[in-house]
């Protein structure tokens, strides 16, 4: 799902998420805590955005990170950062619509696949998760985050939690209103798309907002401590 948020405003988005509440102090610490020892791993980052995860993964010893995103502007940001950090031999970054799968990736080529806040832009998760299963090595891990189905249910038009719906909203993430569309779906739809591909769910969490948010915005800290916003799932491809 294309949004100007990730193309026209890619640089602004990159700047904002370095130290904002939702990405820097809720999503990233929660997902990063679910990752294995990254030393020497081949990692695939689906919906990589501006490459904040790639920087983290390589900083933690990953062998190679392949960054994939629909947005060419995001891919340019990743390439620029890789050059600046002298990581060009350790990062491959290219533009690809992930709803069409991973046609450039070889079978059993990744130890770890991550995807942070991207899968809600994909209408049907089945083809993508099938591709994740294909590219993972035996024993490999898939760790991703997405909107919490209960939180998104507040946007329902149909009133039917089990019916997938396209939601359109205006977000102020980059300091001005930008139109964003995403898919709201049930937890059952998400977990079925994983388990039907033979991926075994080994951890599911609902995120923990960092203590630091208390100083940034006490009201938001209180809200996020009591209301789920994202969901995080870790799966294994059986050996
Ligand atoms: C919320 S941002 C998250 C970026 C990054 N994972 C992070 O945590 O900083 C979602 C990203 O998913 C990408 N995206 C959305 N739909 C996509 C699709 N169909 N194929 C590939 N990337 C997509 C967007 O371009 C955007 O960069």
Automatic annotation (TrEMBL):
Keywords: Methyltransferase, Transferase. Residues 44-144 form the Methyltransferase type domain. One of its GO terms (biological process) is methylation. SUPFAM superfamilies: S-adenosyl-L-methionine-dependent methyltransferases. GO terms for molecular function: S-adenosylmethionine-dependent methyltransferase activity. This is SAM-dependent methyltransferase.
């Amino acid at each position: 799902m294309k949004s100007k948020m990730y193309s026209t405003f890619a640089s602004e988005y990159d700047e904002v998420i370095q130290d904002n509440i939702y990405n820097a102090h809720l999503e990233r610490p929660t997902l990063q805590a679910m990752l294995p020892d990254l030393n020497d791993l081949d990692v695939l980052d689906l919906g990589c955005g501006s490459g904040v995860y790639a920087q983290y993964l390589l900083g933690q010893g990953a062998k190679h990170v392949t960054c994939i995103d629909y947005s060419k502007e995001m891919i340019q940001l990743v390439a620029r950062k890789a050059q600046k950090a002298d990581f060009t031999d350790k990062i491959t970054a290219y533009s690809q619509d992930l709803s069409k799968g991973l046609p450039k990736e070889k079978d059993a080529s990744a130890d770890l696949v991550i995807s942070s806040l991207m899968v809600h832009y994909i209408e049907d998760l089945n083809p993508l998760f099938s591709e994740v299963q294909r590219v993972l090595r035996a024993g490999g891990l898939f760790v991703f985050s997405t909107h919490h189905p209960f939180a998104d249910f507040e946007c329902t038009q149909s009133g039917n939690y089990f019916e997938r719906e396209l939601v359109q909203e205006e977000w102020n993430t980059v300091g001005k209103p930008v139109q964003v569309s995403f898919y709201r779906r049930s937890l059952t739809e998400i977990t079925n798309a994983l388990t039907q591909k033979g991926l075994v769910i080994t951890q599911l969490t609902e995120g923990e907002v960092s203590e630091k948010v208390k100083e940034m915005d006490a009201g938001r800290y209180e809200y996020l401590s009591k209301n789920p916003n994202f969901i995080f799932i870790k799966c294994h491809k059986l050996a």
